[in-house]
Amino acid sequence: MTFEKALRLDDVPVRGVARANVNGKHVAIVRSEDRVFALHGVCPHEAAPLGDGSLDGGELVCPLHEGRFDPETGKANPETDWVSDIRTYPVQVKDGEIWIDL
């Protein structure tokens, strides 16, 4: 595994979402109360930036058409059947920095 720095932990609000660019790849970073997740940063429906989305009920919500994803698994909510699952990436948080293995 090769982890690369994405953002500082403080760049992602608690219960929030931020976007990162890691080696030219768009990544959505999701921060819950005590965990951090990294997902492919482009919605498979119409290429909206998921890093501009929000969290609702623990799900990452696309800012364009409100597709919903489980931040831990990348699985699309069946109620938003116009989107497909997205890739997730391993995350490490060290010394206040978020590292991702693409």
Description:
By secondary structure, this protein is an all-beta fold. It has a single domain (3-101), classed as Rieske Iron-sulfur Protein. 0% of the residues lie in helices and 43% in strands. It contains no helices and 10 strands. It has strands spanning 3-8, 16-22, 25-31, 36-40, 54-56, 59-61, 68-69, 88-89, 91-94, 97-101. It has a 4-stranded antiparallel sheet with strand order 2-3-4-8, with no helix packed on it. A hairpin with a 4-residue loop joins strand 3 (25-31) and strand 4. It is globular, with a radius of gyration of 12 Å. The relative contact order is 0.25. The mean pLDDT is 96.
What is the CATH first-level class name? Mainly Beta
Percent in helix: under 10%
**Residue-averaged pLDDT:** 96
CATH topology: Rieske Iron-sulfur Protein
Q: How much of the polypeptide forms β-strand, as a percent range? A: 35-45%
The strand line-up of the biggest sheet is 2-3-4-8
Element pattern in H and E: EEEEEEEEEE
